[in-house]
Amino acid sequence: MSNPIFSRRAALLIWLGGGASLLTFMLYIVFGSGVSEPESAGNDSYSRSAVGHHVLAELLAELDVSVTVSRHASGHRAGETAILVLAEPNPDTFLGPLGSEVPLMLDSAAVVLLVLPKWDYQEDDDRDSWIRANRPLPAESVARVLQAADDGGSIVRLTGEPGEPTTNALGIDPELDAPQLVSPGNLVPLVAYEGGLLLGEVPRDEGILYVLSDPDILANHGIGRGRNAEFIVRTLMDLGAGERPVVIDETTHGHAARPSVWRHLFGFPLLITTLHALLTLGILFWAATGRFGAPESPRVGLMAGKGILIDNTAELLQFTGHATNSLRRYLEQTVHHAAARLHAPPSRPEALLPWLATIARRRGVTEDLEALDQQIRRLRATRSIGDSTALALARRVHAFKEELLHGS
Questions:
Q1: Most buried among 12, 190, 279, 300, by the most CB within 10 A?
Q2: Section 80-95 average pLDDT
Q3: What are phi and psi of 200, to 5 degrees?
Q4: What CATH code would you report for 39-254?
């Protein structure tokens, strides 16, 4: 006999585990994948601050452009089929441990949009995902990023509006205050002003590399100004967005993370489901290792009672294939019982069924007794009837009697 304390504890643990799984499911519905995204106030696609790029990622998704935010091997993931977006990579990255990986990313991806950095910012200590202040990066730091694109140009910063474009291959005039431009160098101008280039193409033997000098066009604070959103979307469309997926690199913003099943399983929110699975396995192991209390007494071979007798008789009839005989006997007993209840006139037993069928038709009974009788006779003659068919006919006979005696 099992221990009731064990059963209660197991049931409680299972309910707690089920509640944890339900909580995980609700978190995914409400927050989506955002519950596992890193918090950021910087110039990356996770950030909702003024200098962040989260609005751009959402805008592309709304336009049915496949967007992947990459935290590992971005160039390899883009490859020949996708567009790699390097938006405002950290200049220190080019001198740090990832410095050797950035040229590899540019070489691995066939189509690249490189957006030069512009701002040095300070995060707000009192409000998460906000910035407290920002100031322009030194031009020399931005130039190091430009040099990664094999361009010999320099950074040009205007103090006012740039005026009308002298070259505009996109046909869209963005809205910028004090823009950051690039002197021509090796860039082929696509959108340019008298002071320098805003958008240019770097000649490559294979693939395409665009350089956008001012990130304010796609930053959260500037993408909604004028036709800036149209400008950046058109730039990506020229590179093939829509037909090609877009891979936004975040390794150069300090969000590098190698893919790991264990990191996801033991990180929020999948940690709840993992603990639930381990809890369930523990319960199964506990239940399989042993029982508590005295063993149950063996059951006797034949138990007493009418129910046991009826069950055994039914199993014997089913085993020997006498379903049609039992069905015929059940019909005869039903006819006699119903005739007695309705005070049938004295007559031979074979005359009761037609008399009862006539009464049933007058009362509008759904089932036709004579048709049931004929069907049972035919099945009895063939001696081949399944248990389900016999049970269905018995139910119809019973329904006939109930409707005849008690109404519909």
A1: 190
A2: 82
A3: -145, 165
A4: 3.40.50
